[in-house]
Amino acid sequence: MTLPASFAVIILATIGGGISRERLEKIFRPFCIKRKNGTGLGLSLSRRVISQQGGTLTADCGLKEGSRNIIRLPMGEAVVESAVLKS
């Protein structure tokens, strides 16, 4: 019998100016950038790598509360073996 995998959750949060809802929908697209120094590939590559490991990378925000990136990574499956006793 295989039990469901448990997940490690990592939350990266900022305080202050968050991301608008319109921009939030685009931040995981390649080359979506608002900074002078950067390529715009960081979040899209991070999401791809995390997804390849069976995890998820999501974001939520509020303009006054700041923003959060939430990473969920599987910790593996627990396999339970039943022992059959011979009499």
Q: What features would you highlight for this structure?
A:
87 residues, alpha+beta, Heat Shock Protein 90, 2 helices
Description:
The protein is of the alpha+beta class and 87 residues long. It has one domain (2-76): Heat Shock Protein 90, CATH 3.30.565.10. It is built from 2 helices and 5 strands; from the N terminus they run ββααβββ. It has helices at 21-24, 42-52; strands at 2-3, 7-13, 56-62, 66-74, 78-79. The strands form 2 sheets. A 3-stranded antiparallel sheet has the order 2-4-3. The relative contact order is 0.34. The mean pLDDT is 78.
Q: How is this fold's topology laid out?
A:
Layout: E1 2-3, E2 7-13, H1 21-24, H2 42-52, E3 56-62, E4 66-74, E5 78-79
Antiparallel strand pairs: 1-5, 2-4, 3-4
Question: Outline of this structure?
Answer:
With 87 residues, the protein is of the alpha+beta class. The chain has 2 helices and 5 strands.
